[in-house]
Specification:
about 55% helix, OB fold (Dihydrolipoamide Acetyltransferase, E2P), alpha+beta, 7 helices, disordered N terminus, about 300 residues, two-stranded antiparallel sheet, 3 domains
Length: about 300
């Protein structure tokens, strides 16, 4: 009897060592994995950011429980329990990292929104300043338009009594001075060695003498001037190298003329009813001017 029991114990030990038998003893790794999975499920960050990793941990723990319940090998159950525990812990780590990344992204979004709001506020302030300036200019233009003198109708009204008012002063207002312009020939030196002044003087004299021999009267004067200018050009080029040449060109010259400019209008001052009045007319007035009872001119 004892011999049979000893033989069974030895056989059982051999089978256990070979991994061909199961122990009824519960693996503590299963309890650790279940505690880790419960902690991950209670973490709201895991449900939001690591739901896939949490489901993988739960599926691995179910495999370990099913294998233990069906009498699977102890080592296999133990390895599955350890894997479930690792996956539950990894789910919490992934959730924490993703939560921090989401917080940073939200912070950047908030910063960008604040910067955009500041830019929009500055743009709005600038737009308000522009609107205020535009309103000020509009008000100024409206005030100027309201202050502009209206064109008064000096025509005589029917049945309106008129009176003669003595003119006390008349001032003619004229426009800007006029100019008289003409074109004349001018000697130009294109080189840097200077004009042959003696040659120009001699050439001008000779050219003037030769031109004076041509024609008579106004034509003779014109020929003399052309000959003098041409002779001066030829004389100025005498003895110069090819680097520069003296030539003539047309030059416009202008001067103010003292001829009387046309009158723009007459500024007339007259007396009526003990008060001094002013009016602008397009023609010079006489010794008196016709006015109505308010001293307004009538034509």
């Amino acid at each position: 009897m004892f011999g049979k029991s000893a033989t069974f114990a030895v056989a059982l030990a051999i089978l256990t060592a070979a991994g061909c038998a199961s122990f009824p003893v519960r693996d503590p790794a299963l309890d650790d994995a279940r505690l880790s999975l419960d902690a991950a499920r209670r973490n709201p960050q895991v449900a939001m950011y690591a739901s896939v990793e949490l489901n993988q941990a739960a599926a691995t723990l179910r495999q370990a429980d099913d294998l233990a319940a069906s009498g699977g090998r102890y080592d296999d159950v133990h390895q599955l329990a350890l894997l479930a525990n690792q996956r539950a812990a990894a789910a919490q780590d992934v959730a924490r990292v993703r939560s921090e990344q989401a917080a940073l992204a939200a912070q950047r979004t908030a910063t960008d929104a604040r910067i955009q709001a500041d830019v929009s506020q500055r743009q709005a302030a600038a737009a308000q300043l522009q609107a205020a300036e535009a309103q000020r200019q509009a008000d100024q233009a409206r005030n100027l338009a309201a202050a502009a003198p209206a064109t008064y109708d000096y025509r005589r009204r029917a049945n309106e009594p008129l009176y003669e008012a003595p003119v006390t002063s008349v001032r003619a207002v004229v426009g800007p001075p006029q100019q008289r312009c003409w074109v004349e020939r001018q000697v130009v030196d294109s080189g840097s060695t200077g004009i042959n002044v003696p040659g120009a003087v001699v050439g001008g004299i000779v050219g003037g003498i030769l031109g004076h021999q041509i024609g008579s009267g106004r034509g003779q004067d014109l020929a003399t001037g052309i000959g003098a200018v041409g002779g001066a050009v030829v004389g100025a080029n005498v003895g110069r190298d090819s680097a520069g040449t003296v030539y003539t060109q047309d030059v416009q010259r202008c001067e103010n003329v003292s001829t009387p400019a046309p009158v723009d209008y007459w500024d007339v001052t007259y007396n009526f009813g003990g008060y001094e009045h002013h009016v602008q007319t397009t023609s010079p007035p006489g010794r008196t001017i016709l006015v109505n009872g308010q001293g307004e001119p009538r034509v």
